[in-house]
């Protein structure tokens, strides 16, 4: 039986994606996002030092905030993430070996895909949600069409999603929206944390408003 995605993701409805020149550049932003109510934070494997610092970062976040690894392309990384306290895995494409490793280590996994064939391939392997990537190549109506034959498919649009589009994706049936650059701005390069907090609060509010319509 497919388990529902965790409340840290589905509650606020936001998956923040942090990709930086070094993992230490992410730590102030993680604190800011958590303070603004963003509870699911993805640290990408393309960020140098991420595995070395993951356990420390997991220990630093407040209760209720979940840290996971993104851009994961092999099963070995899944094991390392689990050992360091990561709670979920995100892949850029269908990855049966990563899905199997995540199940073995009791981690959530959100595999990427664009076509119905790719998304349903992962869904049938027992994942709780799939990542629609790159979402900018389609529109929110894509989820509506997917939900015709697959009404229970839990979809997270990712890749090129702008803050202004969040409400449309949620109203179309997305369980959460994955946001990187449009949310983070220059906050990972010494930019304003106050501005990041304002953007995060806007997104949290946009999700809530969209769900109440």
TrEMBL record:
Q: Which residues cross the membrane?
A: none
Q: In which pathway does it act?
A: Carbohydrate acid metabolism
Q: Which CDD domains match?
A: KDPG_aldolase (cd00452)
UniProt-listed Pfam families: Aldolase (PF01081)
Asked if the record carries the keyword Transcription regulation, the reply is no
Q: Which GO terms describe its molecular function?
A: lyase activity
Has the keyword Lyase been applied to this entry? yes
Q: Which UniProt keywords apply?
A: Carbohydrate metabolism, Lyase
Question: What family does the database annotate?
Answer: Belongs to the KHG/KDPG aldolase family.
On assembly, the entry states: Homotrimer.
Q: What is this protein called?
A: 2-dehydro-3-deoxyphosphogluconate aldolase/(4S)-4-hydroxy-2-oxoglutarate aldolase
Supply the source organism's classification.
Bacteria, Bacillati, Actinomycetota, Actinomycetes, Micrococcales
């Amino acid at each position: 039986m497919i388990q529902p995605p965790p409340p840290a993701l589905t509650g606020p409805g936001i998956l923040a994606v942090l990709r930086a020149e070094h993992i230490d550049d992410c730590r102030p932003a993680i604190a800011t996002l958590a303070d603004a109510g963003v509870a699911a934070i993805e640290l990408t494997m393309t960020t140098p030092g991420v595995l070395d610092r993951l356990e420390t970062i997991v220990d630093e976040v407040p209760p209720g905030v979940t840290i996971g690894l993104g851009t994961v392309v092999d099963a070995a990384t899944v094991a390392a993430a689990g050992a360091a306290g990561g709670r979920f895995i995100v892949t850029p494409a269908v990855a049966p070996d990563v899905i199997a490793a995540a199940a073995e280590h009791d981690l959530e996994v959100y595999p990427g895909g664009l076509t119905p064939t790719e998304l349903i391939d992962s869904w049938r392997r027992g994942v709780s949600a799939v990542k629609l990537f790159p979402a900018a190549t389609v529109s929110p109506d894509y989820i509506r069409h997917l939900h015709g034959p697959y009404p229970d498919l839990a979809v997270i649009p990712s890749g090129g999603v702008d803050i202004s589009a969040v409400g449309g994706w949620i109203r179309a049936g997305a369980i959460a929206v994955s946001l990187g650059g449009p949310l983070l701005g220059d906050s990972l390069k010494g930019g304003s944390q106050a501005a990041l907090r304002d953007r995060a609060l806007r997104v949290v509010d946009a999700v809530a408003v969209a769900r109440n319509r």
